[in-house]
From TrEMBL:
Keywords: Membrane, Transmembrane, Transmembrane helix. This is EamA family transporter. The lineage of its organism: Bacteria, Bacillati, Chloroflexota, Tepidiformia, Tepidiformales. PANTHER family: ACYL-MALONYL CONDENSING ENZYME-RELATED (PTHR22911), SOLUTE CARRIER FAMILY 35 MEMBER G2-RELATED (PTHR22911:SF137). The keyword Transmembrane applies. The chain crosses the membrane at residues 34-54, 66-83, 95-113, 120-138. InterPro entries: EamA_dom, EmrE-like. Coiled coil: none annotated. Gene3D superfamilies: 1.10.3730.20. Belongs to the EamA transporter family. Residues 2-137 form the EamA domain.
Amino acid sequence: MSWFVFALFSAVFAAATAVLGRLGVKDVNSNLATAIRTVVVLVFAWGIVFATGAQQELGKLSRGTVGFLIASGLATGISWLFYFRALQLGTASKVAPVDRFSVVLTVVFAAVFLGERLSWGVAAGAALVTAGTILIALG
């Protein structure tokens, strides 16, 4: 399968995350809800690692790779804490699209920090996502 198919599956499950998360944070502290969700993700991810034998690669990881993965994990955790609190305070139909503004930020960060080229198509798409985010947030 191509990256695009995996990305589409990611989008479907991200949408499910928003709806299920909104239902889940209804009567619970958003930080507790995030912690419960994180435990589920942790068990699920390690289950896949062991089921596929990927744990054998642990010794091959460089310190730099581990450092970036730890930083990415911290960013994910912080994002989830804010996301669940936003879901608790707002509607899923507004929170999720604003959260997906990360698409635009990723394009900018990838250009600045990774040196990825910014084509006119990508720039136009990012502008449209920005406009859509604003329309949905204010609508």
